[in-house]
C-alpha cells in the first residue's frame, strides 16, 4: 500500500513514524513551507519535514496546495494508493482529494463534530470538556465534515495542559491509523464497489457542531477579573503561551490550580494546603474584599495565591521575561524575592 503523508507539527510525527515502522511504502511527505519559528531570522523545517528528511523521504512544501497546480501534478505522479493527513495546516482542494484511489483520510484530534477546525486541543481544554479523542475521517471538501471510520475517546483531567494532551492524542492517532489502513485496503480491493458501505462509515451528527477557531494573541492574555476556573483552563489550554504582567515585564504563567472547594478532590496536596492557609487567613474563600490580580499569599516552596473574580488561583510555575521557566523557590526568587510585603501587589 503506497502512502502519501501530509503533516506539519510535532503532533504528526508519531503517525509518520508508525506508518514507516509498520512497513507502509511512503512515496512522499507534504508539509508546510519552512518558517521562522523563533526570534531568529533563520528558516527552520517543520517537525514533520525534519523527520521525513531523516527517513530519506521526498518532501513537498507548497505555499498553497490549492493554487499550485504544478505540485498537484507532481503528487499525482507518485501514484499513491492513499493519502493520510494529520495536522497538515491547509485545506486540500477537490482536485487533490480525488487523486488517491483509496481515498484521503484525516486523523483529527477531537470527537467530531465537536471542535472542527484549527485548534481542537486548545478549545477542548479551555471549554473544560471531560472527554476528547481521535477520529479517522474520510476527507471531503467541507471543513472536517467527513464520515468517521474509527474513533476512540480518552478522559481529561483538571491538571491536563495542551502539550500533554497533544502527546496523548498524537499517540492515539498513530494507533488508530494502523487500525484503519488495513480496513481501507481490504474495502478498496473488494469488487463489490460501495466502499463507504463496506467500511461502515458513520456520518457525523448534525447536532453539537462547534468550531475551534485559530488562536490570536488576545487569547493568551490573562484577565484577572474572570473566574478562577476560567483562568486555570486558559493557562492549561493555551500552554505555554498565556501571560500576565509583573513590574512592567511579561510573565508567562505555566501551571496553576484553582482553589475551589468543590474541586478539592481534583487538586494536589499542595493546593489543598494553600487553600486551607488562605481560608484561615481570609476567613472567606470567596475573596469578596480582594481585587482581581492581587497577591493574597506567598509560599516559597509552592508558589503564589492570586485573587480572581471569585476563588483564588495558585500559580505554581511561571517564566519571567528573558528568564527560564521555574517553580517553587526559584519562582519566588525570579519574581524578585517576594516576601510578605508583596502581598497586596497586583498582576496586570
Would you mind describing this structure in some detail?
The protein is of the alpha/beta class and 348 residues long. It folds into two domains: 211 residues, Rossmann fold (3-Layer(aba) Sandwich), CATH 3.40.50.170; 126 residues, Rossmann fold (3-Layer(aba) Sandwich), CATH 3.40.50.12230. The protein contains ten helices and 15 strands. The longest helix is centred in the middle third of the chain and has 27 residues.
Give me a quick take on this structure.
This protein has helices at residues 13-21, 47-54, 69-77, 94-97, 120-126, 162-188, 195-199, 228-237, 269-282, 328-334; strands at 2-7, 25-30, 59-60, 82-86, 104-108, 116-117, 131-138, 148-155, 211-212, 243-246, 249-258, 295-299, 303-306, 313-320, 326-327. It is of the alpha/beta class and 348 residues long.
Specify the CATH homologous superfamily of the largest domain: Formyl transferase, N-terminal domain
Q: List the strand order in the largest sheet.
A: 3-2-1-4-5-7-8
| CATH classification, class level of the largest domain | Alpha Beta
**Contiguous runs where pLDDT drops below 50 for at least 5 residues:** none
Order of helices and strands: EHEHEHEHEEHEEHHEHEEHEEEEH
Largest sheet: 7 strands, mixed
Determine the mean pLDDT. Answer: 92
User: Which architecture name of the largest domain does CATH use?
Assistant: 3-Layer(aba) Sandwich
How helical, in percent, are the residues? 25-40%
Structural class of the helix and strand makeup?
A: alpha/beta
How much strand content do the residues show?
Answer: 15-25%
| Total number of distinct structural domains | 2
Count the helices. How many?
A: 10
Shape: elongated
Amino acid at each position: 500500500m503506497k502512502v502519501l503523508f501530509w503533516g506539519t507539527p510535532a503532533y504528526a510525527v508519531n503517525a509518520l513514524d508508525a506508518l514507516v515502522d509498520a512497513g507502509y511504502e511512503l512515496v512522499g511527505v507534504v508539509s508546510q513551507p519552512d518558517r521562522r519559528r523563533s526570534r531568529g531570522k533563520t528558516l527552520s523545517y517543520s517537525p514533520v519535514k525534519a523527520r521525513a528528511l531523516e527517513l530519506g523521504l521526498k518532501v513537498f512544501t507548497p505555499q498553497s496546495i490549492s493554487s499550485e497546480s504544478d505540485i498537484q501534478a507532481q503528487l499525482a505522479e507518485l501514484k499513491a494508493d492513499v493519502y493520510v493527513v494529520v495536522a497538515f495546516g491547509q485545506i486540500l482542494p477537490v482536485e487533490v482529494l480525488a487523486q488517491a484511489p483509496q481515498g484521503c483520510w484525516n486523523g483529527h484530534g477531537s470527537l467530531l463534530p465537536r471542535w472542527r477546525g484549527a485548534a481542537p486541543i486548545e478549545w477542548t481544554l479551555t471549554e473544560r470538556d471531560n472527554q476528547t479523542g481521535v477520529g479517522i475521517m474520510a476527507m471531503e471538501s467541507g471543513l472536517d465534515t467527513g464520515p468517521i471510520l474509527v474513533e476512540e475517546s480518552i478522559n481529561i483531567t483538571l491538571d491536563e495542559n495542551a502539550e500533554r494532551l497533544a502527546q496523548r492524542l498524537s499517540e492515539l492517532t498513530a494507533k488508530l491509523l494502523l487500525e484503519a489502513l488495513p480496513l481501507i485496503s481490504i474495502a478498496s480491493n473488494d469488487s463489490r464497489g460501495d466502499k463507504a458501505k463496506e467500511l461502515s462509515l458513520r456520518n457525523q451528527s448534525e447536532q453539537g457542531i462547534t468550531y475551534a477557531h485559530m488562536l490570536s494573541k488576545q487569547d493568551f492574555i490573562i484577565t484577572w477579573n474572570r473566574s478562577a476556573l476560567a483562568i486555570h483552563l486558559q493557562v492549561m489550554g493555551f500552554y505555554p503561551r498565556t501571560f500576565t504582567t509583573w513590574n512592567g515585564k511579561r510573565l508567562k504563567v505555566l501551571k496553576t490550580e484553582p482553589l475551589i472547594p468543590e474541586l478539592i478532590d481534583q487538586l494536589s496536596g499542595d493546593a489543598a494546603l494553600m487553600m486551607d492557609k488562605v481560608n484561615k487567613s481570609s476567613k472567606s474563600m470567596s475573596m469578596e474584599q480582594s481585587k482581581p490580580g492581587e497577591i493574597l499569599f506567598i509560599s516559597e516552596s509552592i508558589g503564589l495565591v492570586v485573587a480572581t473574580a471569585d476563588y483564588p488561583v495558585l500559580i505554581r510555575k511561571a517564566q519571567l521575561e528573558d528568564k527560564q521557566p521555574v517553580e517553587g523557590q526559584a519562582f519566588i526568587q525570579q519574581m524578585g524575592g517576594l516576601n510578605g510585603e508583596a502581598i497586596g501587589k497586583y498582576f496586570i
